[in-house]
Amino acid sequence: MKAAVFKTMGPADKVLEIIEVDIPAPAHGEVLVRLNCSAVNPSDVKKRDGGFPELLKDGFIIPHSDGAGVIEAVGRGVPASRVGERVWVYQAQYGRRFGTAAEYVAVDSSRAVWLPDSAGFDVGASMGIPAMTAHRSVFADGPVDGQVILITGGAGRVGHYAIQWAKYAGATVIATASNPEAESHCYAAGADAVCPHAGEELLSTVADLTAGKGVERIVDGEFGGNLSTLLDVASTGATIATYASMQVAEPTLPFRRMLFMDLSIRMVLVYAMPESAKDDAIEDITEFLDGGMLQHRIAYREPLENIADAHKRIEKAGFYGVVLVDIE
Q1: Which of 57, 168, 271, 327 has the fewest CB atoms within 10 Å distance of its CB?
Q2: CA 327, CA 105: separation in Å to the nearest integer?
Q3: Distances in Å between the alpha carbon of 164 and those of 21, 26, 168, 196, 297?
Q4: What contacts 16, CB < 8 A, 6 or more positions away?
Q5: Over 80: is that where the pLDDT of 318 sits?
Q6: Does residue 37 surpass a pLDDT of 80?
């Protein structure tokens, strides 16, 4: 089969190459998926650029955690009825070398989720990291019905779905955006108000919509860079669910201030989520896909041979939407 691989860490156009490798055989509890497309996420770029170098000690790495395709074979312990099933795949390259940037991937049966006929493979490949992270961030700490929730970076891959989950669940959503294009994406996803990432407009909007109390829930995509502002808009007893901190990788916490606000901080990572949380996300994703209830933003596609260009697109600042690599 054709597969994109890297044999050393480094820039996309220097280390990614297309080679022929053996089609994997599904082990006990696994399914073999013939992939239609693979999604590129920031974590995939970080791995290729230097993260988890220990995985290279056993040979090349096929990148990417998310994808979608059709089950062609099953291992022992998996019902044969799954052969021919359209599925979306998540967590394929977590803790191992073999991801979805290839014609085939063998994964645990639980990581290959039924994809309704009404949803394309491109949509399926978008569900893993973005939609599941957003679901956990919104729902991990209880119902949001009737609450005012702040979603920073609402035009991003995770923010786009977080806005939708929160609105469907009955929340009033304030999103932040850095420019008119991002602002329009937030409103299209359902945000009630969109403000700059910091400043008086954000403070006054939060005050108006919460009667001066502050927001009860925050979904954040840049914890270190945003922390000061988050504390300015959070209510006493608020929860901040955060899934990234790129600008300030090791934030310093103003402990005393946070203590007297009785704040809760939740870190969200798909790979580390409890299986029950993954199951909850999958249940809702399946229902919403089947009912055509989610908006999706497929922004950029490249064939497998041009995978380096797809990786470089993810690395560009200010880029909105899902980046896909088409296998077929």
Answers
A1: 57
A2: 12
A3: 40, 36, 6, 19, 13
A4: 4, 5, 6, 48, 63, 307, 308, 311
A5: no
A6: yes
pLDDT value at position 196? 97
| Amino acid symbol at 125 | A
What is the distance between the alpha carbons of residues 133 and 126, in angstroms, rounded to a whole number? 11
206-260, pLDDT tens digit by residue?
999 999 999 999 999 999 999 999 999 999 999 999 999 989 999 999 999 999 9
Question: Which residue's entry shows tokens 């914890």?
Answer: 223
Name residue 296's amino acid: H
CATH topology of domain 2-126+296-326: Quinone Oxidoreductase; Chain A, domain 1 (3.90.180)
Q: How far apart are the first and last CA of the chain?
A: 12
Distance CA 107, CA 126 (A): 17
Check: CB of residue 260 under 8 Å from CB of residue 238: no
> 2-126+296-326 and 133-271: same fold?
yes
Q: What confidence tens digit (pLDDT) does each residue in 289-299 have?
A: 999 999 999 99
pLDDT at 44: 95
Query: Structural domain boundaries of the chain?
Result: 2-126+296-326, 133-271
Say yes or no to pLDDT of 272 above 90. yes
**Per-residue H/E/C for 157-224:** HHHHHHHHHHHHCCCEEEEECCCHHHHHHHHHHCCCEEECCCCHHHHHHHHHHCCCCCEEEEEECCHH
Query: Mind giving me the DSSP string for 92-127?
Result: TTTTSSB-SSBSEEEEEGGGEEE--TTS-HHHHHTI
Report the C-alpha gap between 140 and 276 in whole angstroms. 11
